[in-house]
Amino acid sequence: MAMISLAELALLSGPLSVAVLVGLLLGWAWKPKWAVDLVGVYQPTGLPTLDSLKPRLPSFIASFIPDKVEPAEFAAGICSSSPGMGSRKLAVTEEDLEYLNRLVEVTDGGPVWQQMMERSLPSLTYQAWRRDPETGPPQYRSKTVFENATPEIVRDLFWDDEFRLSNKWDDMLIYHSTLEECRTTGTMVVHWIRKFPFFCSDREYIIGRRIWKFGNTYYCVTKGIPSLSVPRRNKPRRVDLYYSSWCIRPAESSKGDGQCTACEVLLFHYEDMGIPWEIAKLGVRQGMWGCVKKIEPGLRAYQIARRSGEPLSPCGTMAQINTSIDANYFRSLEANNDSSDIVEADEKPSGRNIPRLLVVGGAVALACTLDRGLLTKALIFGVARRFAWPRRTL
């Protein structure tokens, strides 16, 4: 009988110990003011925190209380000051900054960049390159120089989804919302829906983004991230692999006066849109310059709006929360970088080397956009087959 009582007491000792610990913590946290005055400890700012209680608790209890998050942890990728984020790892971290820096310095060790085009306007110059990695979609690099613009105004323009949607300088964006934000580091998670032309359905993006500042240079990272807060649907189609990041910095004006009154933007972009890559390359090449030309009037409208004193949108405000970095940080990266190359020669496509997939894919696109019956579509496919698989001459 005594053994049974001891066994029962042993079973109860665990829950009783937990109850005692919880009671001690609750008692310390919610003790009345007269008891606080009695022991001579009073905090006029409100309820005591776990950090203030920790020195007065037994060591075996205090060991279960985590240490206070210091500012250094924010730089390492932790944010606990933003509504909706709690205390969690940021969507964009220093690893993403290092990757963007290697792209900017052409030291990522990737394939050679082949120049695609070079265009200019009175207040804008543009160059674009492409490379095809062994795996993954085509990658694009571009350099745009805006005259009479500061890096700060261009930074805010690219981040300001409200203005992007209202001004229509990016007419592919048809919906945006902010899912999460960290007001300490400026990190955001946004939800985009973009309209694609012709035979493609709309595309959906869950994007993490963050900005680092080095002097007057801004490293702006945006990339696709997984998210459970937005359920995946059949339409619009979710784009999982997405990367689009900028290095924005002052540049010397093309006027030749030696003044840094222009702004240079280096853009690195690639994504898997779910269509054949050869067709995607054709579409990008044909539509790239048209999209870039729309940015310039959008930028000038944004400059006018800011000079007139229009209030910043929430996204524009977040663009001004940056993480500062110093020169020593980049020096530490130089030893581990591998060089790449940029080829300045213009890449001119040859009509004799058109890929068969491109021809057939273009025929599919044309046939799907026309509603002229089966005979018309059969004719289109027949012409495409004639070009893609020409008859051999004997």
From TrEMBL:
Q: Does the keyword Glycosyltransferase apply?
A: no
Record's Gene Ontology CC terms? cytoplasm
Q: Determine if Protease is one of this entry's keywords.
A: no
Q: Give GO terms: molecular function aspect only.
A: lipid binding
Q: Which residues form the START domain?
A: 111-304
Q: Superkingdom, according to UniProt?
A: Eukaryota
Q: Which Gene3D superfamilies match?
A: 3.30.530.20
The transmembrane segments are: 9-30
Q: Which UniProt keywords apply?
A: Membrane, Transmembrane, Transmembrane helix
List the PANTHER family hit by this protein, alphabetically: PHOSPHATIDYLCHOLINE TRANSFER PROTEIN
Name of this protein: START domain-containing protein
